[in-house]
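ok so I'm stuck.
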Amino acid sequence: MRVIVGLGNPGDRYAHTRHNIGARVIERASAQWSISLKSAGSTRLGTGRIGPVDKPVDIALAIPLTWMNQSGTAVVELLARLGCAPQDLTVVHDDLDMEPGRLRLKRSGGAGGHNGVSSIITELGTDQFVRLKIGIGRPAPGADSADYVLEPFTKDDATVIETGVDQAVQALECALVEGVDAAMNKFHVRGEEQL
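replied:
not stuck anymore, here's the structure
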């Protein structure tokens, strides 16, 4: 089974903030793939299958119900519940260092300053899991990054973010059905290059 986790903070107050873009991707994927999410421990979780009828891929979609900085606790619990390893995991999250809506697929690596990813790496004891990063852009010079990520997207960014969320779902499906390398090739993502 492949496990896809979209990071965000719980509650309606944070639903449309920049930091919750990973959770938005999971919600969009669950709607497109007809996989309903229900509370299960410290996550909202849904399981199902995608891909061709003759080669379906078993997947779990999840959104932690913990605060972003405690995402690792929810992910460890989730993987144990599903009997999966870190190598089965893909984490979808926001990235300050990329333009809004841009995507980057990585096989492994450090947290890049993202507290949710850092928590997952710490709790799992490994950085060997796939990440799909979605750019949210940087705040204006002198503005606080912590405040910026907890704000909603501007109207100017709304269209590009919606396109980015749709592309992220397509990239996930390709990675799950055809493999990460195929997704990197199909979406012109090689190493650190961006979509």
